[in-house]
Design a protein that fits this description.
Protein name: ABC transporter permease
Family: Belongs to the binding-protein-dependent transport system permease family.
Number of strands: 0
InterPro entries: MetI-like, MetI-like_sf
Keywords: Cell membrane, Membrane, Transmembrane, Transmembrane helix, Transport
Subcellular location: Cell membrane
Distance between the termini: 24 Å
Number of helices: 12
Low-confidence stretches: 5-9
Largest sheet: none
Order of helices and strands: HHHHHHHHHHHH
């Protein structure tokens, strides 16, 4: 057996994968430190990584920053949950009833490419710039990954399994709940994971554009318009946003692998 075949047969362990990711993160931080310390970039605009991380840790003791963070997390969580509650049933409907799918496809394809950021001013004028503003935009942006992954998962359901259930007298709803939904669940979970990242981007972007109220985006906005700009604060806020995204993605990936081991086994992926 060749070395290449052995590497495919023995996937990296979780510890190895995490160590590689940590090494990559440390290498990136070291690069920022080197670029800033050597003057390749102006430290006023790109502080050293140690200064950024130090400021990020200091912000944890700041009650005002914690309020900003919790406000952003609330908008993110509500928007993502509402998007999932709306998108999964809608995806099941469109994926199961070709007539409805065909009738609504042009509307869906028209709405899907519209950038959510372009809707920020319009939504602000219609419903204001409070929590509802962020939640509405997060729901709109997060809806599409879940919707399309749900529909894609339904298309991959084994038709033989559905026909077997129908032959025993089960109706369309029973087939959907007993076969189609369980089979498409891994794809729905992937859609939720992708939507979680999109929701985080829209939450912070909306706060930055609005420039008022509370939220990490608002914190970054005011740090940016200060004279002089507080770059350490800006990058510390970005650090926490990025770290939260990494943690959420890792937790969702772990939950997927735990809940859908059979799916990953079928695809030959490590559990």
């Amino acid at each position: 057996m060749s070395a290449q075949s052995l590497s495919r047969a023995r996937p990296a362990s979780p510890a190895t994968r995490w160590s590689r990711r940590a090494a990559g993160a440390f290498a990136f931080a070291a690069l920022i430190e080197l670029v800033s310390r050597t003057g390749l970039a102006d430290p006023e605009f790109l502080p050293p990584a140690t200064e950024i991380v130090g400021r990020a840790l200091a912000l944890l003791a700041d009650p005002a920053f914690r309020t900003h963070a919790l406000t952003s997390l609330l908008a993110w969580a509500i928007g993502l949950c509402v998007a999932a509650v709306l998108a999964v049933p809608l995806g099941l409907l469109l994926g199961s009833v070709p007539l409805i799918d065909a009738a609504t496809r042009s509307v869906v394809e028209f709405l899907r490419p519209i950038p959510s950021v372009a809707l920020i001013p319009l939504v602000a004028l219609v419903i204001g710039t409070g929590l509802q503003h962020r939640v509405t935009l997060v729901v709109y942006a997060s809806l599409w990954p879940i919707l399309y992954n749900t529909m894609y998962g339904l298309r991959g359901v084994d038709p033989l399994a559905k026909e077997s259930l129908r032959s025993y007298g089960f109706g369309p709803l029973s087939v959907l709940l007993r076969v189609s939904l369980p089979s498409s669940a891994p794809f729905i979970a992937t859609g939720v994971r992708l939507a979680a990242g999109v929701a985080l981007i829209l939450t912070v972007s909306t706060e930055i554009v609005a420039g008022r109220g509370e939220g990490i985006g608002v914190f970054i906005f005011f740090a940016g318009i200060a004279v002089p700009a507080r770059m350490a604060d800006i990058l510390a806020g970005v650090f926490w946003v990025g770290l939260f995204g990494v943690v959420v993605n890792a937790l969702l990936v772990a939950a997927e692998r735990q809940a859908f081991r059979w799916h990953h086994a079928q695809r030959g992926e490590p559990s």
